[in-house]
Each structure stands twice: as structure tokens, then as C-alpha cells.
Amino acid sequence: MSKPTSKNIYDLILITTIVLLVFGGIGGAFQPVRLFSLAVGFLIIAKNSAVVLKREILGIVVFFIFLFSYSLISLSWTIDLTEGMKASFYLVCHITIFFNIVICFHRANNPLDSLLLGWLLFVGITIPIALFELIFDQHLSTSFYESNRVSYTADGTAYFRRFASVTFGNFNTYVVVLVCSLPFLFGLLLRPASKVKMGFYVFVLFIVYAIILINASRGGIVCGIVIFLMFSFLRKGRKFKVSGFLRFLFVCAVFVFIYYAPLILEQIMLRLSGDRGLFQDQIREKLFEAAYDISRDYNFMGAGAGSLETLMILKKASIHLPHNFLLEILAQYGIVFLSIFVFFILKLLYKAYNSDIVIFRVIVLCAVSSMPLLFIVNSGYLYYPVIWVYFSSLYMLSFVRLFK
Questions:
Q1: Count of CB atoms situated within 10 Å of the CB of 187
Q2: What is the distance between the alpha carbons of residues 276 and 264, in angstroms, rounded to a whole number?
Q3: Cβ 43 vs Cβ 10: under 8 Å
């Protein structure tokens, strides 16, 4: 039985949830994607309880029940009760986001198309803002850094740093967002599309890579390279027709690259020479050590929800989060939940590798291959709604087949 082509309400909720990520840090704790997910989430979950109880999904339900229960129990010993309560609230919001994506993907008429469209629209809306920042060196009020930001190389040379953070406050956070989007943007190239659409997808990918290069996040650049190489390998010689429109876009892209090449190369070389601060490897290693020491102080059982920043301050760490996703989980929630999360990633890898649906396999393997570096680009991953959308998207592509 063929699937209907028109979108239903679940397609629209799926797309809307992803697109709302564009607001980034606007709203603080009450970001639009969190409020929207809470508003529709419990209704969706209640109406689709049979979906939640399916074998492919039940395991993750049990995991989240235990995670949230631990988060609440840990409030009895966390060093910062206020932050712990915030972390528990965020956890409720983000678990709801996760299941919104899961249920809507399952019940949508065109789940894969809606998922990819949501990611495309989300990234596409951020691109004009990012280009405005890079061209005019003007930033939104959500930016942690002001215009004409001065950075320093290892030898003390000062330089003005161009960057784009859009609504995400930190340019590294925006790099994480773009890296998360790349597997889904490459997935669009494997879907049937007109030459004009295919050319547009390639153009968006080019702009995304250009922004990552100009932001000059070393981890982000390597992630982008790994994803590109993995996609090139996994598509198994699939050929794309080169239309006149695509040639035109390629020529435009070359001119844009030539125009910005000095800026891109300058930013990369200055970054490779080493900033004074977070971006030095020695500083990053000290952050890792501080987070590991915290884990050991609590016998690897977890310091409790919302405790990490305060404990990092007590450890006299120069930055108050460890710049390592896995260490963030270990320090706050302990070795048990970290082990389950790592098992989840390995399961994603196994399921995707054995999938007979090419586009599912390509997207998930591209994503998983970049995770070792993606997890150390920035800090505070558990607080990013985009990370929860990212993993719920990969979860559905790995664990649940499209069916009606």
C-alpha cells in the first residue's frame, strides 16, 4: 500500500519542532521549542500511548524514566539545588521533545521528507543571519561576544575575530548546530528532487561549510571533513546529474570562496597557532581532568543534576564546563548512565550499518562517525534542545522502520 503524499498534523508538528530550534537561546529557560513541545507533547504522548509501548521504543522510555527519577533523587545531594531544579525542568522539556519527534515521525504521512525538510528550514533560516554577522561584524543581543572581538595567538599577537553565533550565543554552539545538521542535509542529496532543488541543497551545504571554516572551530572543521568523506564513501558511486543551473551555482560558489578565501585562511591559521584561553589543548585537558576528578570524588555515581558548573568553579577550572559531552554525563549522572548512553551510540551504529534502507544508513553513519569530535567542540550539550532533536532523529532512522 503506497503512502499518501499530503502531509498530516504529525508532519507539521515534526517540521515545526525542528524549525523552532532557530530561536536558539532566545527565551532562556522558556525557549520556544521547549514551550511548544510541552504544549503539544503530553497530548501527543497520551493519544499515541500504543506507539510509546512498541518494542522499538519501550527501551528508551524505560531509560528516560530512570534518568528523570535519578535527576529528582539527586536533588537531595546536589551542591546547587537551584541549578539542579532547572536541570530537572530542562530534562522534562527535552524528553518531551525527544518523544514528540519519535511519535510524529511514526505517525506522519511523509516522515522522512518532513524530518529532512525541518532540518533544511532550520539551517536555512539561520544562514542569512550568519552571513550578516560575518559581513558586517554585527551580532544579536544573544551573542556572548561583542563586535570587533579581539583574540590572541600563542605568541601574544592580537587579531580581530570574525564569527557567526546567530541566536545561539556562542560561535562554537552554532558550529555544533551546523555539524548536527550536515548528515541530514547530505541526506537530501539522496532523495528524488528536481535539478533546481538539488542545486539549492548543494548551495546550502557549501554555505554551511564556509561558515564552519570562518568560525574556525578545529573540531567542527574536522567533523565536516569526516562527514563529507563518509557520505562520499557510503553513497557507493551514486551519480548526480550536473545541470546548467548547478553549474551556475558552482561558479557562484567559486567566486564567493575566492572573495572570502583570505578571511577563511587567516582565521584558520590564527586558530591553529593557538588562542589564549579555552581553545588551547592544554586548557582543554585541564578541564577534562577537573571533570574526571569530580566524577571520582562522587565514586562515579554522579554529583547530581545541575551540579557541574559549581563544582568546576570549586576546582578552580578556567572554564566552568568541561567541553566534553561524555564527561558532562559522567560527572552529573554517573558511570551507569554514561555506559547506557555509549551503548545507545553503539546500537545506533549497529542498526544503521545493517539497515537495508540506504538513506537511513548514510545519515546515521555520517552522524556517528563525527561524534567523537562533535562531543568536544563545546559545553553544556544536555541543555541544548538541538542535541535532543538530533538524537531523536537518528534514533528513528536507526531503530524504527517507516510503516503505516
A1: 25
A2: 20
A3: no
How far apart are alpha carbons 303 and 82 in whole angstroms? 14
Residue-range domain boundaries for the chain: 9-399
The sign of the CA dihedral 294, 68, 378, 308 is negative
Give, to the nearest 10 degrees, the angle between helix 9-19 and helix 81-107.
140
Contact of 17 with 37, CB cutoff 8 Å: yes
Q: Which amino acid appears at position 334 of this protein?
A: G
CA distances from 98 to 11, 42, 86, 116, 339 (A): 15, 12, 18, 16, 20
> Positive or negative, the Cα torsion across 308, 309, 310, 311?
positive
Contacts of 85 (CB under 8 A, 6+ apart): 75, 306
Q: How far is CA 77 from CA 65, 72, 292, 312, in A?
A: 20, 10, 19, 16
CB 211 within 8 A of CB 134: yes
The model's pLDDT over 51-100, given as tens digits with 9 standing for 90+, comes to 777 777 888 889 999 999 999 999 999 999 999 999 999 999 999 999 99
As a whole number of angstroms, the distance between CA 229 and CA 186 comes to 11
Percent of the chain with pLDDT over 90: 53
Euclidean distance between CA atoms 189 and 235, whole angstroms: 10
Residues with Cβ within 8 Å of residue 246, at least 6 apart in sequence = 195, 198, 199, 202
DSSP state of 315: T
CA distance 47 to 100: 12
Q: CA–CA separation, 23 vs 7, rounded Å?
A: 24
Cα gap 319→380, rounded to integer Å: 12
Decide if pLDDT at 2 tops 50.
Answer: no
Distance CA 332, CA 305 (A): 6
Residue 277 has pLDDT above 80, yes or no: no
Contacts of 380 (CB under 8 A, 6+ apart): 321, 328
Distance CA 50, CA 1 (A): 22
Which residues have C-beta within 8 Å of that of residue 265, sequence separation ≥ 6? none
| Per-residue pLDDT reduced to its tens digit, 3-16 | 556 889 999 999 99
Q: What is the mean pLDDT of residues 338-343?
A: 94
